[in-house]
Design brief:
With about 160 residues, the chain is mainly alpha-helical. The protein has helices at about 1-20, 25-75, 85, 90, and strands at about 125-130, 135-140, 145-150.
Length: about 160
């Protein structure tokens, strides 16, 4: 008889403990609402961080590419690379003193980049004389100035203000 009482009372205690340790539906809903509010606050900050990161990556990439254009000019007796006509071929291969792609033993200059640089804002690698669909970079052969198109490839990236459009 004493064993039955012990079993019954321990069963009652375990049910009581179980009901006290569980969360109510209202408590769970409150936690879900709080998490929703916090995520609504934090998510826009992460999207701004992604745009800022792409913009900073573009700025550093332009700085590097411009220095490579100057290096090419110095090594080739003031001849600028024709990135519009040749795209990135003159930068990815070895060249001779006249600036022509030359993979023979006389092609001792370069390469200046390992692969075609991709514009981080729009993902395009094409070089053109002006902005347009599918263009990532704009190059002026007369001056050797390299600029980038914006997130919309028909617009120029504004380096001064860093505006991403």
């Amino acid at each position: 008889m004493g064993a039955e009482r012990f079993t019954t009372s321990s069963f009652d205690r375990s049910n009581a403990n179980r009901s006290r340790s569980a969360f109510t539906l209202v408590e769970i809903l409150i936690v879900v609402i709080i998490l929703g509010i916090l995520s609504a606050i934090v998510v826009p900050q992460f999207s701004n961080a992604a745009v800022t990161s792409r913009k900073n990556s573009l700025m550093e990439q332009m700085k590097t590419l411009r220095s490579q254009v100057l290096l090419f000019k110095l090594q080739h007796n003031d001849i600028l690379p024709d990135l519009v006509a040749n795209q990135w071929a003159q930068f990815q291969s070895t060249t001779n003193l006249s600036g022509a792609v030359d993979t023979t033993a006389s092609g001792k200059l370069g390469p200046y980049v390992v692969k075609s640089p991709q514009n981080p804002l729009n993902g395009n690698i094409t070089v053109a004389a002006g902005a347009g669909a599918g263009v990532g970079w704009i190059y002026t052969l007369a001056t050797g100035v390299l600029t980038a198109t914006n997130q919309t490839s028909t617009l120029l990236f504004d380096e001064t203000n860093g505006v991403v459009q």
